[in-house]
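quick one if you have a minute, typing this from the bus. theres a chain ive been looking at and ive put its sequence and its fold in token form underneath. please have a look and point out which stretches look like helix strand or loop to you. anything you notice is useful, everything is just below.

***
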Amino acid sequence: MSNSETTQTVDRSKNRKVKAILAGGLVLGLGAAVTLAAWNDSEFVTGTFGVGHFNVLGSADGTTFGDHAAGSPAALSFTTGFNNLSPSETVAAPYVLQLDTTTNFDATVSMNSAASSGTAAGQLTYKIIKVASVAGCTPTATGTATIVPAGTALNSVAGASTFSLARSTSLGTLTGADVFLCIQVTSSTSLVQDTSAVGTWEFLATSTP
């Protein structure tokens, strides 16, 4: 090989190395740019929550209030003759509902269920009305509103309406306003003597924030 050919071969080899180095430099340069741009930062937030209180109380006399569960219902005090009924007779008993002193919400109350037992159950019907006071609950009272219509079977809540309970206007000190109910039970004309029945009603209060 001549000296000139040798020189040209060396020059081409140098050029390839320079191009390879430059190309490698470009790749490294791009890699460095991506790494420098990958900055990040985070913010974290938290919240603390409290839960309100809701409790409805009932009373058979308008004076002594308490919680009455399914297994220990309040005993109603019906007017004279409730334990010695004759055909086509009506007896009545008051029941008062209120929200306790620390309840945070108003309530809507519905008749959730009714149950009956005893051989006379099928011969008795009932009606529930709102009245102005415990004393206003009598067998002939007409009330200010009808919650359950007259003639309703002892084990039915068909046709029942809802009503409202207001929370306390002085939370922690006063209870909510009383709602006075009057439960009127009427016997049929075909009532059989020496029989008996038991009726149980469930008032369901639902909070209304």
Remarks:
- The helical segments are 3-37.
- The chain has two domains: 1-41, 56-208.
- The radius of gyration is 41 Å.
